[in-house]
Task: structure prediction
Amino acid sequence: MPDPYFRRLAVIAMNQVFSVRSRWVVLSYLVISLTALALRLLDLGSFANEDEVQYWFHRSDVFLRAIQSGDFAATAITTHPGVTTMWCGSVGILLRDTLFDTGLLKEETFSTILTLMRLPVALINSLGVLLGYALLRRMFPPLLAALAAFLWATDPFVVAFDRILHVDGLTGTFATLSILAAGVYWNHSPRLAWLVLSGACAALAILSKSPGVVVLPVVVLLALAAPGKPRLRPLVLWGAVGVLTVMLVWPAVWADPSRVFEVLRVGVEVEGSSPHVQGNFFLGREMDEPDLRFYPVVLVLRTTPLTLVGLLLLPFAMVFEGHGERGARGTGPGQGMGSRDVALLAGFVILFVLAMSFFPKKLNRYLVPVFPAVDILATAGLMGVMLRSCKAATSGQETTNRVIAHIVSRYWSLMVGGMALFALFNAAWYHPYGIAAFNQLLGGHRTGVQTFLVGAGEGLEQVARWLNQQPDITGVVTMSTMVRPLHPYLRPGAYARGSDEGTLPERTGYVVVYLRNVLTGPPSPPFDQFYGQAVPLHIVSIHGVDYAWIYQVPPPVAHSLPPSARFGDGEAIRLWGYEVDPSALRSSGVLTLTAQWQALAPIASDYTLFVHVFNDQGQRVGHIDTLPGGAPSPTHAWEPGRFLTRHYPIPVQAGMPAGTIWIALGLYRPDDGTRLPLHSPPPPGAPDDGANALFLEPIHLQ
Result:
């Protein structure tokens, strides 16, 4: 039996599950579109990216006002150039204003505003996946196209940036659509619509972010390598469509071309040639300019397990013939996942990675635009190897070919369905923190944190949620190493700020330290006094990695104590400070002690506090035994890291003469009277109160 027979049989077995004439085509479009929309729209206002709050909200507002006022030259705002992002932000602003002005929305929370600002981006990127699927069906066998689009729709790294007001997700969507449409035109169906779509999307990719210019040489090489087809005329038309798109979408190009040129020049010569202003981190150490290994490592670690396996299998996958939609309609067989299609997508990925590698400013999100192509290539690897298996299965006796083909088709369906379910589960697992997604086969999130500079605001909404539950939050200041993504989520009356002076301002109640700010070493003052030095009151974790530490700042007291003022070992309780008020001693015979406690770890037992008062002859003249936290708060209920301030009135012997008063205190087990170990020795001249008693500074009565 000739070899092409088996190849055709394998493809038929695959395509009969997903034939263009079957009802499953409509279902595939529905499933892919709903999946893409759900992952990009659900919890859209969950957390804010630092760049959104710091830059893109304001830039979008400036862009919109420039359009509305007719000052088109003023639409040249940033070097990215970020034009599509600002258009999306402008639409979000108009949508927000319309909904609130008409009364359809009444509660103007930050989460609602963030959702509306992001909505146009999320919708465009979701529609991009659906349009990409339509293009994939014209290039590849239907089942391969469906799985490729589904992996694109569920890639957590892609989803993360497809749903925020930023540039990388839009660049990836438009660049991928341009490459796919060009592939359809030059490799499969030379229709004008595909050429126009490719040129327009190439322009939109460049207008989103300047590295989108990599699409240009890829398409030019594709056109020049196309056998037996006109080359110059389609390229000229393709370029003309791109130029026209730029002129229509970015008014500054024709309103003030010199300003546009200057903005782009600064982006390439100044910003692109300089390291990241906040420093960088790679392979476990601080590195302002990561070397050429950076983006290959990003490419590997940011894949999903399924995508990584597919990429590894791609070199071994068989190039096979298949029937796209054109073939199914009787216009002739289209190429399957052939070498030209692989070369087109792989060439884009390789060229983009190389181009980005030679710039000193590197972040792992800069590689987001290639990941849709990576997902498609991985699908080709997975499906190609499965086709090879089909060929092996059908190479037996001719009389069994039909039975084997039937079995293979069922097996194929189960395999593809299993891969799709795995991709969906993986995306749901990381949602809404797809920005924290790293390949689980290579250590997952923990490996990513040890390799790259991570943390752009994710998790800070959880910090704000916890802070909002604190009864004193509106009466104190919260200091944070990352303020902008935190402050908008705090409830009215609460306030967060950073520290430019390196000191804590008055009324500071809480300190928040964020992961990004400690990857390269201890945080700057005053945060270094807390991180690694104090017990956090609350920790926010994302997929097993601590992202934010919340510390309570001890209220000011008259006397602060050293760390040695600590009782117990495993269940350590620290006395941070105290005040003594002897004003009522002679009038009512009461000495008031104010103590400030903190549990350094969870406490399983309840302890009793003793306070002994001695005169200068060493005689005990007053004492109390009480719960250190008062009746509502036994020690087992103390929250580690939480400061507890309590007042203790101590009856003292009447008629106290002038002289020195000593106060000793400690904790003991009420069942047997055993005192908790103390890590602070008594001062010289102190009376004898037995072991494990903490003496405070003596008081001199006049």
The chain has three domains: 3-436, 460-552, 559-701.
